[in-house]
Design a protein that fits this description.
The chain is 23% helix and 28% strand. By secondary structure, it is an alpha/beta fold. It has a domain at 13-150: Rossmann fold. The strands form 4 sheets. The protein has a 6-stranded parallel sheet with strand order 5-2-6-7-1-8, sandwiched between helices. The protein has a 3-stranded antiparallel sheet with strand order 12-11-13, with no helix packed on it. β11 and β12 (171-172) form a beta hairpin. The longest helix has 14 residues, at 25-38. The radius of gyration is 17 Å and the shape is globular. The structure holds zinc ion. Zinc ion (ZN) is lined by residues 154, 156-157, 159, 191-192, 194-195. Keywords: ATP-binding, Cytoplasm, DNA synthesis, Kinase, Metal-binding, Nucleotide-binding, Transferase, Zinc. One of its GO terms (biological process) is DNA biosynthetic process. Its EC number is 2.7.1.21. It comes from Spiroplasma corruscae.
Length: 200
């Protein structure tokens, strides 16, 4: 994303970073939060506790960039922690990674925070492996002030990767395989529109 040109002197908005897997969303997410941090903004970062790929209290990108993050299991828990911290020292920026894995109420909550002067940096997948819109991200695509849709490189043809192909035992996963299964030993590939195989 380029620099946000904020012509409004009132603070509080939503920035969404989205796209398929391997598009560099997490790097962009961490980079942007660090940028606010360097500007002495008080930041707080959350991640759904379902996502514990690398460590409990941090978010890592594929290139091993990292930032501290508080794992939460629900939007209610996130709100509670935010309010406690906000009482001690006013929070300027809230980061939330993998926003598609939280419950639906997160969208309303982020809207509320942004309207009350908090800068929201949200990151999440726009589509699941069946190419259907992912919850929360679908709504944030509409309500966010700033949207960056990142793309990857198609693993088949080198074209513009916009979709995530889930591979189980060397073949595209069937449509009825469970949507969220982070721990499973399976593989994901980025694919373009043309090389993506619709799960059956
Ligand atoms: Zn392709």
């Amino acid at each position: 994303m380029g620099n946000i040109l904020n012509l409004n002197n009132k603070k509080g908005w939503i920035e969404l970073i989205t796209g398929c897997m391997f598009a560099g969303k997490t790097e962009e997410f961490i980079k942007r939060l660090r940028r606010y941090q360097y500007a002495n903004q008080n930041i707080i970062v959350f991640k759904p506790s379902i996502d514990d790929r690398y460590g409990e209290k941090e978010i890592f990108s594929h290139s091993r960039m990292n930032i501290e993050a508080i794992p939460v299991s629900s939007s209610t828990e996130l709100k509670k922690i935010f309010n406690e911290r906000n009482t001690t020292k006013k929070i300027d920026v809230l980061g939330i990674d993998e926003v598609q894995f939280l419950d639906d109420d997160i969208v309303i909550l982020l809207e509320e925070f942004a309207s009350n002067g908090v800068i929201i940096v949200a990151s999440g997948l726009d589509k699941d492996f069946k190419n259907n819109p992912f919850k929360n991200v679908d709504k944030l695509l509409v309500t966010a002030e700033y949207v960056d849709k990142l793309t990857s490189i198609c693993s088949k043809c080198g074209g513009n990767g916009t979709r995530t192909q889930r591979i189980i035992n060397g073949v595209p996963a069937s449509a009825n395989s469970p949507l969220i299964d982070i721990a499973a030993n399976e593989k994901y590939e980025s694919r373009c529109r043309h090389c993506f195989e619709e799960p059956k």
